[in-house]
Write a structure and sequence with these properties.
Length: about 425
């Protein structure tokens, strides 16, 4: 980011403020405490207790929507035992010149180092009727419990969105009701993660499980019709439902940073140390745009393993232990009604990129590899699970394939053999 190092003045009075009590915020606080037993550490979360992973909320244990959620750290006294203060409040603004955070109730919390780990918030489509009582998001444990209270086997559920969160929510909803319709504005399911072939397999699989999928369409208005909802689709179709689920995705929760001087795009722009454009202010998780492995572009990578690693790197630097993130790595593994799909790296075929693929459509199996030179740049996988670890290793570690590139071009399923052979060669 080109910022000068923040002046080092470590000692017993070092004050760390972490905005966000989700997995990234908690991991950062724990890391800071291990590194600096005497520091003042404050975690500010706008919900009582610990925030939940959105993915965990949407899935809620394979359809048990009303279960008590598993927290990042389920013991309410966990932070207290580590002498970390947890404040339940919303942050209104951060003053980077005065090094202070203003809470919604007007209180001001000073800091020496700050971490923004505020996660993401649900996208709210500009649709007439989106505020009706029978319209829900599936973003928090309270959302999941509210949905469980109204969804029954006799209910007709209409869901907007067939992306990552939408497919996880569908897994839970399909277990609760026999009638589920999904409307997706893009031309295929999981468009951000899978190509046309993979998205088509997922759609056919869902339809075979009794879910109606409508791609390339959008809900334009919702009204009440007696006790039910009446959703108007952009092609003129009217769908009546008992419940409407908004699962149209999320966006970084960074609106409160407007005017702070912190550089933003979709999220907080950070360097390899997870530091923002303002020295002493860091970001991690869904709120951060970190440098991506391979492309070296910044992107929001909204997956929990990446979030907690970013938080760990940020905490190390906040405590005066220089550390760099090698790069955020885009990968997603998803179970959609029992069919596992995976997306790794730069799976979109770029200019000059070479590809190899294997398709067994009748068995819902598909593997597509994207090469750049003698390295594997990205991959899509549906139905194949034994190759997932090797795919991630080859792509994330940028392994030189050598003669294995031609072998994989002819036989893509040999990725595990390729990974083991090339990694063994590298260690000799």
């Amino acid at each position: 980011m080109g910022t000068a190092p923040f002046p080092l003045s470590f000692g017993s009075s070092m004050r760390h403020v972490i905005i966000g009590s989700g997995p990234a915020g908690v991991v950062a606080a724990e890391t800071l405490r291990r590194l600096d037993p005497s520091a003042e550490i404050t975690v500010i979360g706008d919900k009582a207790g610990f925030a939940q992973s959105t993915v965990r909320t949407a899935s809620r244990s394979r359809g048990a929507l009303d279960e008590t959620p598993n927290c990042a750290r389920s013991d309410a006294d966990h932070l207290a035992r580590l002498r970390i203060e947890l404040r339940h409040s919303r942050v209104k603004a951060i003053d980077t010149a005065a090094c202070s955070v203003t809470l919604a109730d007007g209180r001001v919390v000073p800091y020496d180092r700050a971490l923004i780990a505020t996660g993401s918030r649900p996208v709210r489509p500009a649709i007439v009727g989106i505020d009706l009582p029978q319209v829900f998001t599936c973003w928090t444990p309270a959302d999941a419990q509210a949905i469980a209270a109204v969804v029954s086997p006799a209910a007709h559920v209409l869901q907007m969105g067939a992306g990552f969160i939408g497919c996880i929510a569908m897994q839970a909803l399909a277990a609760h009701t026999a009638r589920l319709t999904v409307v997706e504005v893009r031309e295929r399911m999981l468009a951000h993660l899978l190509d046309d072939v993979a998205g088509g397999l997922i759609r056919r699989w869902c339809e075979d499980q009794g879910v109606r999928i409508c791609t390339g369409r959008r809900v334009v208005a919702v009204t009440r019709s007696g006790e039910r909802l009446r959703a108007e689709i952009d092609d003129g179709e009217i769908i009546e439902a008992d419940v409407l689920i908004n699962a149209t995705g999320g966006q970084p929760n960074v609106a409160f940073l407007a005017g702070s001087g912190i550089a933003l795009d979709r999220g907080v722009l950070v360097d390899a140390a997870m530091q923002s454009s303002v020295a002493g202010v860091y970001a991690a998780g869904d709120a951060a745009e970190a440098i991506e492995t391979g492309t070296r572009r910044r992107r929001v990578n909204a997956i929990q393993p990446d979030a907690v690693e970013q938080a760990r790197i940020a905490a190390l630097n906040m405590a005066g232990h220089p550390a760099l993130l090698p790069g955020t790595f885009a990968y997603n593994i998803l179970d959609t009604l029992g069919l596992v799909s995976a997306s790794f790296g730069q799976w979109q075929e770029g200019a000059g990129g070479e590809t190899a693929q294997l398709l067994e459509a009748a068995d819902y199996r598909y593997l597509r590899l994207v090469f750049s030179g003698d390295r594997l740049l990205g991959a899509n996988s549906v139905g194949y699970t034994e190759q997932i670890a090797a795919l991630r290793g080859l792509i994330q570690e940028r392994v030189s394939l050598g003669e294995w590139k031609q072998r994989l071009s002819a036989a893509p399923l040999q990725v595990t053999e390729a990974y083991l052979a090339r990694r063994l060669l590298a260690t000799d």
